[in-house]
């Protein structure tokens, strides 16, 4: 969290939040997100006389199921007729080595369907992040559920916490900062619980004699196995098969199989799928909004999930054949002839609509050059330096040739020309629009020339009044220069270099466009691109 805060720029804004509409994440899990009011309605409709909550950030195994099942038995023994289990998996941020949210949710659902938990269990994602703050965080988990309607809260051992620093002067070098029982001990003496009661459990073990989880019997210690989370992950990574009915006496030394009854088979299969391919970008680590893309009407084919590296927008012609927006769309509008210098009109392919922060771009490496979201470290990239106030895209049939240098010795960056459209309309991704060229900024990015052509939609209400940078509001020009120089600083990078904060005019811009169109033609003829 400190790293995130420090990388967020010089300002952080706080205050009251007013909800204008329901928050949807569009990640395939929204059906498991219930508001507090919806949860209370579900509780009332069930006819329950006692709601008991269980918080988890892990897949459900027989040990967890024992706690939830026994809690229900305890409540019935207290005289409650219809206790209701409320399973509340965390949906907020968790560490990268924790199991992803989508895998956990689907695994919980399978566990309910297979009867390891009561059939009327209410499962709903709890939006809180995991802070790994041990006993302090346990109190938050408990009391926040009370506010929604839980009267009982299950607590076991080992609240997730941080490790001790590896200081030779400490008695426990590198061990857990908190004792495994600190969470439940602190919670039971915590002020402010009101009428909420705690159902506290010590650690449970796997009994080899009947393949169930339970508190250990000290008179037959050899019959019980301790199956840690790290053991479970290691077994899933190698796709361990179920053990035979009689588990070998040296199981703890060899761990060749997963004990029967420890997890339902479908749930175990889901775990194995993840741990055998953990770096696959399809997994949803935690709740992050994946808004629907704003795509222009027309002939397009979308694949994958927007907001994930899998999302791809292919261009198609009227016959449904795939085409390249870089190579098959003309630089000049139909009927305009070659390079109409007087009108300075060219075609722009819109990649990022005004107001959107997903860093979308024509992908040079993929066949037919579809639009994809840029990725870094297998994670999709977003603009973080404010919301873009312009439509961003590229000029087709242009190429900044790395073998060519500008008048100051900077090589081209190997991309099509970037273009920023400053008109009043939001232009959806994939739009091919005729634009009037107004000027150019010369950006130097990591020593390479990266020109930014400034244009306006030729049909914009202001287009007839704009011919040169002098016709553009000075504040807009200053904002463009500031954005180009500073947008990477929000990602912890340095300030970009501009040749000048002054935007050069359309003659320089058209010269660059014609040159890069020539570089593109030569490279295509030589099969370089």
Condensed summary:
This protein is α/β, with parallel strands linked by helices. It is 23% helix and 18% strand.
Describe the structure.
The protein is α/β, with parallel strands linked by helices and 529 residues long. The protein is built from 11 helices and 22 strands. A 5-stranded parallel sheet has the order 3-2-1-4-5, sandwiched between helices. Strands 9, 10, 11, 13 and 14 form a 5-stranded antiparallel sheet that branches. The protein has a 5-stranded mixed barrel with strand order 12-17-19-21-20. Helix 4 packs antiparallel against helix 9, helix 5 crosses helix 6 and helix 7 packs across helix 9. The model has no long low-confidence stretch (mean pLDDT 91).
Ranges where pLDDT stays below 50 over 5 or more residues in a row are none
Judging from the principal axes of the Cα atoms, what is the shape? Answer: elongated
Largest beta sheet: strand ordering: 3-2-1-4-5
Fraction of residues in β-strands: 15-25%
Helix content: 10-25%
What's the end-to-end separation, in Å? 43 Å
Total count of strands: 22
């Amino acid at each position: 969290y400190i790293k995130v805060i420090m990388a967020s720029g010089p300002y952080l804004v706080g205050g009251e939040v007013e909800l204008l509409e329901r928050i949807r994440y569009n990640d395939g899990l929204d059906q498991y997100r219930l508001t507090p009011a919806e949860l209370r309605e579900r509780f009332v409709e069930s006819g329950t006389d006692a709601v008991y909550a269980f918080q988890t950030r892990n897949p459900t195994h027989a040990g967890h199921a024992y706690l939830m099942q026994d809690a229900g038995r305890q409540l019935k023994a207290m005289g409650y007729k219809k206790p209701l289990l409320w399973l509340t998996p965390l949906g907020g941020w968790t560490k990268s080595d924790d199991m992803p949210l989508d895998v956990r949710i689907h695994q919980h659902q399978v566990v309910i369907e297979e009867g390891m938990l009561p059939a009327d269990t209410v499962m709903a994602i709890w939006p809180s992040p995991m802070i790994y703050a041990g006993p302090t965080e346990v109190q938050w988990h408990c009391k926040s559920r009370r506010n929604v309607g839980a009267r009982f809260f299950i607590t076991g051992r080992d609240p997730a916490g941080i490790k001790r620093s590896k200081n030779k002067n400490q008695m426990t070098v590198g061990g857990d900062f908190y004792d495994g029982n600190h969470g439940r001990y602190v919670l039971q003496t915590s002020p402010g619980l009101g009428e909420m009661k705690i159902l506290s459990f010590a650690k449970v073990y796997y009994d080899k004699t009947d393949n169930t989880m339970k508190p250990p019997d000290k008179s037959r210690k050899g019959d019980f196995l301790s199956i840690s989370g790290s053991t479970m992950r290691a077994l899933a990574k190698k796709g361990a098969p179920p053990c035979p009915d009689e588990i070998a006496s040296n199981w703890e030394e060899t761990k060749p199989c997963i004990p029967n009854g420890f997890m339902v088979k479908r749930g175990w299969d889901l775990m194995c799928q993840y741990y055998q391919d953990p770096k696959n970008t399809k997994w949803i680590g935690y709740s992050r909004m994946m808004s629907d893309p704003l795509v222009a009407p027309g002939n397009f084919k979308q694949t994958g999930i927007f907001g994930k590296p899998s999302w791809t927008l292919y261009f198609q012609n009227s016959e449904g054949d795939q085409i390249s927006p870089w190579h098959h769309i003309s630089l000049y509008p139909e009927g305009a002839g070659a390079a109409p210098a007087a009108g300075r009109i060219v075609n722009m392919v819109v990649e990022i609509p005004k107001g959107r922060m997903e860093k979308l771009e024509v992908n040079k490496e993929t066949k037919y050059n579809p639009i994809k979201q840029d990725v870094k470290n297998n994670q999709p990239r977003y603009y973080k330096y404010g919301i873009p106030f312009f439509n961003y895209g590229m000029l087709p049939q242009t190429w900044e040739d790395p073998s060519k240098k500008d008048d100051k010795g900077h090589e081209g960056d190997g991309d099509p020309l970037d273009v920023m459209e400053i008109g009043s309309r939001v232009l959806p991704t994939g739009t091919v629009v005729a634009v009037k060229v107004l000027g150019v900024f010369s950006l130097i990015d990591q020593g390479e020339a990266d020109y930014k052509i400034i244009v306006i939609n030729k049909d914009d209400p202001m287009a007839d009044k704009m011919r040169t940078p002098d016709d553009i509001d000075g504040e807009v020009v200053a904002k463009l220069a500031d954005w180009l120089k500073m947008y990477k600083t929000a990602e912890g990078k340095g300030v970009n270099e501009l040749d000048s904060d002054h935007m050069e005019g359309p003659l320089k811009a058209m010269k660059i466009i014609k040159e890069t169109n020539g570089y593109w033609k030569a490279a295509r003829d030589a099969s370089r691109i």
